Amino acid sequence: MLVSLTAILFAFIGIALGYGGIKLALLGGSLYYIITAAGFLLTAILLFTRRAAALWVYALIILGTLGWAFYEVGFDWWPLGSRGGIIVLLGLWLLLPPIRKALSPASREVAPTIEQARAGSASPLPLLGAIAAALIVAGISITKDPHNLDGSLPTEAVAATPDMGNTVPDGEWHQYGRTQYGQRYSPLTQITPENVASLQLAWQYQTGDVRQPQDVTETTYQVTPLKIEDTLYLCTPHNIAIALDADTGKEKWRYNPEVSANTQRQHQTCRGVTYWKDQSVAADQACYERVYLPTSDAHLIALDAKTGQICESFADKGVLDLTRGMKYNPSGYYYSTSPPTAMDGKIIVGGAVNDNFSTQEQSGVIRAFDILTGQLLWNWDSGNPDVTTPIADGEHYTTNSPNSWSVFSADEKLGLIYIPLGNQVPDQLGMGRSEAVEKYSSSITALDVKTGQVRWVRQTVHHDLWDMDVPAQPVLLDITNKSGQVVPALVGPTKQGDIYVLDRRTGEAIIPVTEVAAPTGAIPEDFSAPTQPLSGLSFNPPPLTEANMWGATMFDQLACRIQFRSLRYEGRYTPPSLQGTIVYPGNFGVFNWGSVAVDPKRQVMFGMPTYLAFTSRLVPADQIPPKGEDEKASEQGLNRNDGAPYGVFMGPLLSPLGIPCQSPPWGYVAGVDLRTGKIAYKHKNGTVEDMAPVPIPLKLGVPGIGGPMITAGGVAFLGAAVDDYLRAYDLTTGKQLWQTRLPAGGQSTPMSYTGKDGKQYVLIVAGGHGSVGTKAGDYVMSYKLP
């Protein structure tokens, strides 16, 4: 009976592999699955007829699979395991005595007689040998990591007293990236690689702002708090501003603007607030210190930093309406997710515009307002870039012009503000873009802070059809070149993995940028750029191949191979198509809004490159179904592009089991010497503990979204990964030194400060991320040494 059931199982496997294998072969894929299907069917027949040759045939299947798998991936354990795991387990099943003894070598009959069974069972040696060979290769592969790059960053202090931007006391954190340079670098030294493992929870606070059932998918907690004197200032996803005692986490005040829910919003988040001190009034006056709160209903609110009360002298009784000047103003389509920049008596604001909802959305204009009164001082609209004088009543900014939803950086001495720009929506359709839009789309643009006029622009993608907007705050530092000259530099991470290292005065490349050929063949109504820029410092991954497709089993791996062969893919920048296109690096990007951290003394960089392929498929407008009443905004699934000839269906390239089709690792930590542009190390980061059905902390290297922070003690801190941990790393080697479990996803950037007790604290907000599926929460977690 057991042998018959085993034979039926093998027959079903053979039929499934044969069906999928034929589909794959017709698409030009591997013939392995057809050959293996034939082997399974032959094994099933031999089992039905109780022939010992079944073990010989199955031994050949194992050896053939081993040879094929090793040819494709070498000593790489996870791809090897998914190819051969089930096959080896079935081989062990065939060695069970009840099965092996039923396969008498002396019989050709369906069932052996008692005398024939006593004559001897089928020899296990061929199958044992094949299994042993597979296990030996598996054992060797477990000890190797072909994806790991070992190395060390230089430890010398190239600059003893580096320029870190505007003046901030060592124990404080005044802007999103600590200073306007966005370095995410704390000059505190108490925490070191030697003692970081002793970090303990100092205090924990919960905001009470938790994800609601009516919230959009992209409801996330990405805030990095500010620390001024003894107070922390932060905001929540629903735009509640809160002040906390930095030593205890005790709440001092909160302000709730009571932003109404709106399912038309694509994002529901707040990355931070902006601090400003009004030197024109006495320190004991109301609103001497201010906190500016951006909201998801497109307002900017000025609050007294001491009390949380509205500063009514700003704008309209303390509230600035950011929808003024928009020709089209669909509710929920425009909002600020990132803190504005305060400098030179101005507050400079960008805004997020819903991706791929409509051709009639708000402008991506960048505006500077008087920081005390809210008066508009200049506006820079990338669709009309030469005129920056404030528009008059009744005039409108350019509809759908490229926007900047991320964080700006600034150099007060140069009088420049650096804008990471997106592209004109719809993202995947480039028809009808103006000359100005083509110039500024997906670029880093430097504006004169006094006038808003463009000083220089560096485009990172030409005619962007892949949503490769520049997502990260540019990082500013001075770099000492080989001749000893100090160059004011800008480090610009991008979604496609290129890191632009530029002279921030001119935009000229410090690390060379070249133009390389790119795939062509856009839809007839559109075109694609024949070349694309490539930085000499890049984390751009090698192109995907069929052999890179992965799965927990050989079955979902086969499904991923069929999907890969069914989609259009000629490498990075393969144009969108009706057939469906693989976008790799994908829409989450190698780097995203979390940016990178730099040590301005050692002139090195620490970052978290992530690799997750996406797909996009254009959908003709007449095939888009009517919008459902309960349909919520999301970057995954159908993007409608109302008014355009095509919508787009997009999302990660996933297997039928919902795991990435491409082989792990999907996420790393990496260190770069910015003086040479060389990647010193690259290590897998994070586990599948919170991804897998069984919470086993296997270190595959997982995707993440969030940012790192460096301390002068030589330690880098990072949450961000899709498992719920805060981790510490040796900045020099990238080695993980410490981790602590978080009560929710840590998709925010950590910061560090000094308390009244003289101790160095490390703080992270843990609230989860809707799109990547980490656990939601409302936690502020602060740690210090005992």
Task: Write down the Rg.
Answer: 29 Å
Estimate what percentage of residues fall within beta strands: 15-25%
The end-to-end distance, rounded to whole angstroms, is 65 Å
Output mean pLDDT: 94
- Low-pLDDT parts are 106-119
Summed up, the helix count is 9
Outline: globular
What is the helix fraction of residues, given as a range?
10-25%
Number of strands: 40
Class based on secondary structure composition and strand pairing: alpha+beta
User: Going across the major beta sheet, what is the strand order?
Assistant: 1-34-35-36-37
Quaternary state of the chains: single chain
Major sheet size, sense and barrel closure: 5 strands, mixed
